[in-house]
Amino acid sequence: MENEQGAVRQGRGRVLRRTLVVLLSVGAVVGAVLLFLQGGRQTARPVGPAPGAQAGSAVRAGVPAALPDLAVLISEREARLRKHPKDARSWAVLGAAYVEQGRRTADAAAYYPKAERALRTSLTVRPRRNPEALDGLAALAVARRDFRAARQLGEAALKADRKRWTAYPPLIDAYTGLGDHKAAKRALDRLVELHSGPVVLARAAAVYRDQGWREDAAAALSDAVAQAQAPAERAAWLERAGQLAWERGEREAALRHFEEAVRLDPDQRAAQAGQGRALAALGRTSEALSAYRVALAGQPVPQYALELGELYESLGLSQAAKVQYDLLRDRVRREAAGGVDGDLVLGVFEADHGDPLTAVRLLREEWARQPGIEVADALGWALHRAGESKEGLRFAAVATDRAHGGMVRSASYLYHRGMIERRLRLGGPARRHLEEALRINPYFSLLGAPAARTALAELGEAPWTDVPVMDDGEEPQEKEPEAEEPEEEE
Q1: CATH number of 358-459: 1.25.40.10, 1.10.287.3510, 1.20.58.100, 2.40.160.40?
Q2: By the number of CB atoms within 10 A of the CB, which of 13, 81, 191, 488 ranks highest?
Q3: What's the pTM?
Q4: 3-state helix/strand/coil string of the chain
């Protein structure tokens, strides 16, 4: 009996072995056929860089990195530096990663002091020829809105390495923040000579936008999106493209850009706030509120709180608006602990929703430190709100006149100037600037756009007069009152 069972088992084993041989033979034949059809070449999918390495390459080049990859990079650099505390490059990379992490999470108090310590340590370890640490410190200064320091550090990085292209992006931000648009354009020209790629295209788009070349800016951003490699980078350029579309009043196009950015990078909070902006303009209020809340939960930026508060205010929900305004003040205080200058956003808020005199004080100090176009517009408006419209017009001219450097075609800036002129009984210029504001972007502000329409209705149609014809056949242009450029305060 046992012999019969053993014979059965041996027979089954032989059958299984034969079956296995047949299957292996068939597999070999199929593999050979596939190899022949592929031209005799085996194609393997390339293995991408590890998350930490990918984030490291991104932060060194000033490219947005995904938050999970940044966390890996920070963990790796911290572990390495515990074993190799004299590694100057790792200290510089760690500092740059902290800057990006602080920017992406809006947790300046937690990350910016750590970033400064890491970058200063890199300089201590290698005090000479360390442009990487200087780049990181310049980027940190930009994140803190300290444009004077950013300019000094960026220029120091260039002295250490004249061909270091990564020194130019923070320098361009610094020159722009200080109102030196000619220097920003020169820095861009040099950057384009030294390097190419998505980060350069995105930087060029920002300069073109500031010069009033909106179509060029849109084209450059489109190319940046097409050439971007990592999803987080592509999402960042899509967010900027959405913002540019929004500034032109293209609600649907802006929303598409923002939605695609969030799809590629769910941590792209600026795009989520952009969704809120566009959805509110489209009348999709519930979705807009949800988008703003998600953005604020992941990146509690004071500007988002201001926009959400104004959305609540436009809906008549004053108590809910007050909650956001209180959050804004709290966030400005928290960011100040990380060295961030929040006087601009706080001044803008106080001018419209708080104490205009406080706004004037804050913004005068800001203008003395860094006289950029944004500050000129905000200070002009705050002066108007505080009852000093004549002086306010001088600053509004800086923000809107090409002769004074105001080349950005901003609906908000033009609205402010038009309302100031209306208060000063300059009917023609007021009408023209308010009309232009609504023509550029009819949805520029949930509170400002309706106010602009009301003001235009009260101004009425332009008076009809017999216009003399000049010898060359052209009609004479209405002369606006000259606005003296305010001097930078010492």
Answers
A1: 1.25.40.10
A2: 191
A3: 0.85
A4: CHHHHHHHHHHHHHHHHHHHHHHHHHHHHHHHHHHHHCCCCCCCCCCCCCHHHHHHHHHHCCCCCCHHHHHHHHHHHHHHHHHCCCCHHHHHHHHHHHHHHHHHHCCHHHHHHHHHHHHHHHHHHCCCCCHHHHHHHHHHHHHCCCHHHHHHHHHHHHHHCCCCHHHHHHHHHHHHHCCCHHHHHHHHHHHHHHCCCHHHHHHHHHHHHHCCCHHHHHHHHHHHHHHCCCHHHHHHHHHHHHHHHHHCCCHHHHHHHHHHHHHHCCCCHHHHHHHHHHHHHCCCHHHHHHHHHHHHHHCCCHHHHHHHHHHHHHCCCHHHHHHHHHHHHHHHHHHHHCCCCCHHHHHHHHHHHCCHHHHHHHHHHHHHHCCCHHHHHHHHHHHHHCCCHHHHHHHHHHHHCHHHCCCCCCHHHHHHHHHHHHHCCCHHHHHHHHHHHHHHCCCCCCCHHHHHHHHHHHHCCCCCCCCCCCCCCCCCCCCCCCCCCCCCCC
